[in-house]
Each structure stands twice: as structure tokens, then as C-alpha cells.
Amino acid sequence: MGPTTTDHERVLETLKSAGIKFHQEGSLMKPITDDGKVLVEISAAVDQTIFRAIAEIAFNYMAHQHGSDFAPLADFDDIRNYIRYGTAPRWAERMPVVVPFPNPILFDDTRQSRQTNGHLVTFDWNAGQMGFMGQVSLFNTITHRIAICPSYKGIWHPDMGRGHHFDIEDKTIDPLFSSSLLAHP
User: Fold this and answer.
1) I need a surface site. Which of 53, 99, 102, 173 has the fewest CB within 10 A?
2) How far apart, in whole angstroms, are the C-alpha atoms of residue 64 and residue 46?
3) Whether 87 and 152 share a structural domain
4) DSSP secondary structure string, 97-133?
5) What is the reported pTM?
6) Could you state, in chain order, the average pLDDT of each consecutive group of 10 residues for the chain (185 residues)?
7) Considering 26, 41, 56, which residue would you say is the last residue of a domain?
8) Among 185, 155, 8, which residue's Cα sits nearest to residue 75?
């Protein structure tokens, strides 16, 4: 494939001079349309191994943010066993451990427009404020919600929420802020 026939022939000659026998079996559709848009198709296979890795990112983030006294609690045994051994938690029948979610983490982002290509990770109380959930969005694409602990037996603390942006371009890490985490006057 090349933008012109001359480019195509040059690539074939380069392959031939390198000892590579190329047999053309078809041609590709022109990827750039007349209006300048590039047509792409993205597909991916996501399995339990990938979900376990995503859950591990969320768990490690929680451990980093809340410390060595919090992470080993028995409330997190199910998620640890899922990450390490692939053992589905008892509660996984009613609530999947990892769920891909189309909505972005950042408030000003939309499904079509994202303000960063960096990684985003959050940890906070779940919707019922009875347990914990994490969110991981690698390259700020698909948001994965992770049920870290649906039912926490410890003391409720209002300041559990954390979030960070990992900028892949300038290699910096910045905290995320939520209006629900800001002090009210």
C-alpha cells in the first residue's frame, strides 16, 4: 500500500531487495476519504485475564492511597483472590467485578471528545456508600468500573475518594478533584 503507484512499487522493490517474496492477494480500501477523514476499525478481545489486570491496577491504587493498614483487611479478600487466582467472588453473580463503561471519568469529557490521552484511576465509595469501587481508564478510552468491595464492614470515612491522572506525554501525575470532595463553606 502506498499513496501512489510509484510508492507502491518502491515498497515492493525494497521488500524484494531484502529477500522477502511478496504476493499481493488483494488491495486495501483507501483509508483517507475525500473529506480528509481517516477510516479506522478497532477491535479487541477482552477476557478475564485482562479484567483481572485492570482490577489489580485499581486494587494497587487503593493500597497506595490508603496504606498498608487498610489494604490487608479481610473485606478485600475476595478481590485479592480474583486478582491472584481468577476465583470469582461470592457476590459476582449479582455484580460483575469489572464492567466496561462507555462514559468517561472526567466531567468535561464526552464519549466522543477526551481532554487527555493519559491514564485515569479513581477509588471511592460505591453508589450506596456501603462498599468501594474503583475506575480505571487506560489512555482515557474505555472506563472500567471495578467492584473492589461491595460491602465494607469497617468504619465509614467521608474522605475515601481519590483520583489521579497519569500524563503519558510529560510523565507527570496529578490529582483529580471532585466537587463532592471539596470542602463546603
Assistant:
1) 102
2) 26
3) yes
4) SEEEESS-SSTT--SS--S--SEEEEEEE-TTSSSEE
5) 0.74
6) 78 89 75 76 82 98 96 97 96 94 90 91 95 96 96 92 95 85 42
7) 41
8) 155
